[in-house]
Amino acid sequence: MNVSLLDRLERIRSGSSKSSKGTGGSRNREDPGTTTEPRGREEKAELEGPEDRAEESSGRLDSIGAFGIDPELWRGKSELLGRLSRRPAVQYPPRRKKREDPLEPLKERIHNRLVREVERDLLERINEPDERAKLREKVESVVSEVLEEEEALLLPAEREALLQEILNDVMGYGPINSLIQDPTITEIMVNGPYQVYIERNGKLELTDATFRDANHVMHVIERIVAPLGRRIDEASPMVDARLPDGSRVNAIIPPLSLVGPCITIRKFLKDLLTVEDLVYLGTLTWKMARFLEACVNARLNIVVSGGTGSGKTTTLNVLSSFIPEDERIITIEDAAELQLRQQHVVRLESRPPNIEGKGAVTIRDLVRNALRMRPNRIVVGEVRGGEALDMLQAMNTGHDGSLTTVHANSPRDALSRLETMTLMSGMDLPVRAIREQIASAVDLIVHQERLRDGTRKIVRITEVQGMEGEVVTTQDIFLFEQLGVDERGRVAGEFRATGIRPRSADRFEAHGIHLPPDIFD
Questions:
Q1: What CATH number is associated with residue 224?
Q2: Please, which residues bridge with residue 249 across strands?
Q3: Domain of residue 125, residue span
Q4: Do 215 and 330 fall within a single domain?
Q5: Residue 117, C-beta contacts closer than 8 angstroms, at least 6 positions apart
Q6: pTM for this structure?
Q7: pLDDT tens digits for 43-80?
């Protein structure tokens, strides 16, 4: 006869009730001289670990079986829960530990002596060549004095390494100073005090560089941001900055960073890449380069799209180099990275709020102001918010030939991103009006990617052709087709033209630009 679940529950309830009566109602009337069963269970639970509790739980599985559940199944689940209760909530990847340095006490004494003896105003003028020479002499003198006082016996190579480390701390950027000076390194990533990665030839490598502690990392961050009038602390734990050579710096500290202070440095080559360099590196072909040069000279509005680290800023620099010398160029950036070679260039940089939350100047503010500065061209390092609307309006109101970049995964995605960012401006515009604005303002999208072998390539040059119904229409002019991977792990592929003559070709003729007819074949 089948017994219902309610009947089973009633039997268990009545059985536990009889057991309770048999104990003389001790659950409700506690004898001061004895310990009741519930209290005993609580104390036992405090003394026992997860394994003991799992065993106790498995001992009661027979009664659970009254519900029609396999006791063996529940026993397995109980053991699993016991193991899970002993696992940590989060498992972080293994991190490089601080290396023991036998010279650490000696370095500490040298640092303390320098703090006492080096004048503060000398440190504040550290970027002046004469003052740097004076500071170097002072550091060398202090190191020699301390070594003599301590009677430290060091080999010449050890002495030179110690001096260089102290100089890097006082005058440079500590353990990453040599990495910054290495021309083969394109990016430096400091993940707390004891883990420093670099990017070389498009590949990430873990280095041997380490900091003493988190305060040492903070000292380097302060060295970077202080000359720019920026700050970083718990109230403002993120900052964007740049090095004197134009390299871009981002820093983030606790409580936002759980691994300690982090620094990311995107280095720029001292010798700027030219279009010839990009062709040599395989970023694009000569046909693509000649077409892009014609587009800039014909004053087409160009958006360079791509992911992080795909080379957008480098390509924007190269495109900007095509702008004629007799034009006035206004560049607008969060952190100045563009390095245009023309003479008539005005560089504008946004400003974060001060400690009171006031005084911020955004990219959007600068775009609006640039319209009053009689620009021939406006070059915005990157649009990422409401300034997209102002940029589109500038492109549509006589400031053609403007250039900018946007984070996107494809040319079509770039159009969607521009649409989204325009909505972020707060203007109550219908979607169709925004798309018409984009279709009218943007002439060309140059999409760049970093491939899995670390190389960077312009994978699409796409023309924006207009509107069809509710959709912005586009047409690829050039593209890169990936064909696989060769025996050395490099991406194999080929650039090719789609064979379609762009609508903008008529503008080339109007500006006296004559491209070979086979360039689009």
A1: 3.30.450.380
A2: 241, 265
A3: 104-266
A4: no
A5: 138, 142
A6: 0.70
A7: 444 444 444 444 444 444 444 444 444 555 545 545 54
